[in-house]
């Protein structure tokens, strides 16, 4: 879990909010499905543009996992099928 010194938040007048999806999955699953539906709509409309730093074929999936473990990706690591 990333850590942020509290003084940085105070000096820059920032707010950090935590969120646990697990509670919604259990008690209000429709919130999750509606949220993902909205995210997919935004993606289709081009409003969300995730940065893909690596795209590898399925036969190199182990290499993709190594990139994630070693924290060598600067964006999404996509494995194509």
- Kindly name the structural category: alpha+beta
Number of domains: 1
Number of helices: 4
Low-confidence stretches: none
Q: Rg, please?
A: 17 Å
Give the mean pLDDT. Answer: 93
- The spatial strand order of the largest sheet comes to 1-2
User: SSE order in H/E notation?
Assistant: HHHEHE
**C-alpha end-to-end distance:** 31 Å
The coarse silhouette is extended
How large a portion of the residues is in β-strands, by DSSP E? 5-15%
Could you explain the architecture of this structure?
This protein has helices at 6-11, 21-27, 29-44, 61-69; strands at residues 52-57, 76-80. Helix content is 47%, strand content 14%. The chain is α+β, with helices and mostly antiparallel strands and 81 residues long. The model has no long low-confidence stretch (mean pLDDT 93). It has one domain. The chain has 4 helices and 2 strands, in the order H-H-H-E-H-E. The longest helix has 16 residues, at 29-44. It is extended and about 45 Å long. A two-stranded parallel ribbon has the order 1-2.
């Amino acid at each position: 879990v990333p850590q942020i010194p509290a003084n940085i938040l105070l000096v820059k007048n920032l707010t950090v909010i935590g969120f646990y999806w697990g509670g919604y999955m259990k008690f209000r699953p429709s919130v999750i499905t509606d949220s993902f539906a909205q995210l997919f709509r935004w993606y289709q409309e081009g409003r969300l543009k995730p940065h893909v730093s690596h795209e590898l074929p399925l036969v190199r999936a182990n290499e993709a996992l190594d990139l994630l473990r070693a924290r060598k990706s600067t964006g999404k690591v996509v494995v194509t099928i």
